[in-house]
Amino acid sequence: MTDIVLASRSAARRRMLEAAGLAFRCESAAVDERALERPLVAAGASPGEVALHLAAEKAKAVSVDYPAAIVVGADQTLDLDGERFDKAPTVAAAAEQLRRLRGRTHALHAAAVCVVGGRVAWQHVESVRLTMRDFSDHFLDGYLAAVGEAVTGTVGGYELEGRGAQLFDRVEGDYFTVLGLPLLPLLGHLRSTGVLPT
């Protein structure tokens, strides 16, 4: 049986794979994401291209230690009318991001890449559109008090599977992609290669 390694620290991605019944291990990728994305952004790469590149680099870094395994790398970017958001470094910065996102529609681009023996064997990026409601400052203060530092753990400052659902009016697209991994295409690839039963 081929080993699967998830090159991610994301609890949401780990929970998705566990819930889908996959046997895998998690290994964090030692890469400097900001350093990797700077030249891409300077060259005009799209948010989806940035997500694919970062997902591939994470998987390649972990593949060095697991050359016979299928290493799954993942990344997600947020795009607001052409402006890409990163995870906020502080709660105050996350609050400012949420104020900018409220009442508007943004896109999330989630990428998954499978690397075997240091080479990309498969890659996929999927996009969803999310419309935040025009919530009040009072609501935002309560939201931030409830979620605390966790608001800095996700791009956009929300977890749709938790209290963050209250921020939105509409979500157009795949739920798993919102959580940071295009799960169904990944499972399809693993079935096509015989790792999962058909």
Write the layout of secondary structure elements.
Blueprint: E1 4-7, H1 11-19, E2 25-26, H2 33-42, H3 47-63, E3 70-80, E4 83-85, H4 91-101, E5 105-116, E6 119-132, H5 137-147, E7 168-172, H6 175-178, H7 183-192
Parallel strand pairs: 1-2, 1-3
Antiparallel strand pairs: 3-4, 3-5, 5-6, 6-7
Helix pairs in contact: 2-3
Could you describe the 3D structure shown?
The longest helix has 17 residues, at 47-63. The protein starts with a strand and ends in a 6-residue tail after the last helix. It contains seven helices and seven strands. The mean pLDDT is 94. The radius of gyration is 17 Å and the shape is globular. A hairpin with a 2-residue loop joins strand 5 and strand 6 (119-132). It has 198 residues and is of the alpha/beta class. Helix 2 (33-42) runs antiparallel to helix 3 (47-63).
How much of the sequence lies in strands comes to 25-35%
Order of helices and strands: EHEHHEEHEEHEHH
Low-confidence spans: pLDDT under 50, at least 5 residues?
none
CA-atom Rg in angstroms:
17 Å
Mean pLDDT: 94
In DSSP terms, counting alpha (H) and pi (I) runs of 4 or more, how many helices?
Answer: 7
Overall 3D geometry?
A: globular
Helical content stands at: 25-40%
- Class, according to the CATH hierarchy? Alpha Beta
CATH fold label: Maf protein
Question: Using DSSP, what is the number of strands?
Answer: 7
Content-based structural category: alpha/beta
Largest sheet entry: 7 strands, mixed
Terminal CA distance: 15 Å
- CATH architectural arrangement: Alpha-Beta Complex
| Overall structural domain count | 1
